[in-house]
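Lab notes, practical 5.
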Amino acid sequence: MISPDFFRLSKRVNPLKLKSEASEAQVEYSMFAKMSERMARLIRWGLTIGWLVLIVSLFYDPISAQWTAPGQIFGAATATDCFQFQGDCRLLTAYPIGARIFWGMVLPLVIVTLFIFGHEAWRRICPLSFLSQIPRALGWQQRRVIPEGSWLERQALTVQFGLLFVGLNLRLLLVNSDQLLLGIFLVLTILSAITIGFLFDGKTWCNYFCPMAPVHLIYSEPSGLLGSKAHTATPPSITQSMCRTLDADGREKSACVACKVGCIDIDAEGSYWDSIRLPDRKLLYYAYLGLVIGFYSYFGLYSGNWKLLSAGVWHEPNQAATLLSPGFFIAGQALAIPKLLAVPLTLTVASGTTYAVGLWVEHRCKLYNSSARYPLSAEQLQSRIFAVIVFLAFNLLFLMGVRPTLGYFPLLVQNMIGWGAIVASSLWLVKAWNRSAQRYARERDVNLLRRQLNKLNIDFSQFLEGRSLEELKPDELYTLAQFLPNFTQDYQLQIYRGMLQDSLTQRSVTAASSLKAFQTLRQKFNISDEAHQLILEQLEPIVQQSNPEFTTVIRRGGHSDSATTVVRPNQPDRR
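Output from the prediction step:
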């Protein structure tokens, strides 16, 4: 047992302090999080220019049709090849390839990027996000933010899921293969993003309106297969895809304007655990699986040919003209339901079914978990259910949507891509399966605790049998912190205050969420909720120096669990 008396013997500066902080910074700055802003800008420009060129080709493309001519790489083997469509054999004629590139190559690559490298990889280079920031770059962006607690702030994910649902309907009805309509659709999407970027500050488009945001969440939560850990970063690091810019000396600095509390760009996994039990998350995950199934199943329900995508085409040059044509062709018979109704009906039934099944499975899992000898926490159980949903959705997307369209590749390459998707998703499932809110909090707290112990100017190594603080296990660190000098709370309060300050500065927690986030730590240190509130009041002017967009407001006389909130101060519009 470590005697507390030894602390009185030494007040020397810890020689391991610099090593500790350097190693923690290295943990965070992995993968795309450490990519320089200059490099990110170059990649954003390159992807944006490429996307705009692709959009232009949707309006005028005299070249790519020759690649889909019979005998060419994307075309039929012979001029007489045809595919079955509602009882007829339609010839595989040449067509411009822009829509096929966008739907069949670009979007799957985006999903793979999210799944493997995490949200930080895509959010920093997303062309649509980049275009939404044009008003900001020109100094025209208004300084409005979505009010905390407003209807849109509370229902943002449901709104975005609704926009995704509408977008998938539009794709099947109008813009899947119609080059002109797809071009108009993408231009209107870009103009919408720029308009939101003009009316609101920060990444309001990404956080509240982007229809692809639900897809980003699903395939990047709790983290990508190779994603970094923001909660282990050394404050005040610029973590993950956090908004950043360059100062006059060319150094990176945070450009966060607090357009969203608990932003995913700062700490994706922290945002995930904070919101995992909200009803809109269940709607997102359970219903999204049905959208994937319903979307790709509709190709077969509409054409009567379940191998339609294997033909390498989904080519209706004038989709608007087919809106009132039969929307289903089943068992050799066309049903008298127009396509205009058949598409939303299919997606609604499919997503509604998987949502209901998901709730039922969740209920059964909770019953089983409650009777288990070692039950999981509610958050970890929910996370494991979500992980299985994502695993299924990712593999179904490849099996039903991507794999059938790879016919122009040799069979070996097709199999390698298919097995690669299975292996990657399996590795991701193992990683997500072992994550929990408790493990996340322990990793965050241990790194914060180790930093604070290093700041006490005490040489611990000679009393730890040659080990350093970095080698101690989490439980050992907590025990060490509990037996600090003189058996008083002075050092414990000092450590707790430093940990809370680091977290608020790093924005891994807010003043409102900190009471719950550090509940376990307060219990170990025997620190009351009232002491926590007092420390928050003391930290407010200090934290505001590095985080001026947030103000901690202490509401006296209210409930202790909600006594502290975060208010984003009103900012005048820039005219």
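Observations recorded by the TA: The beta strands are 82-85, 88-91, 244-246, 252-254, 326-330, 333-338, 551-554, 564-567. Residues 4-16+438-567 form one domain.
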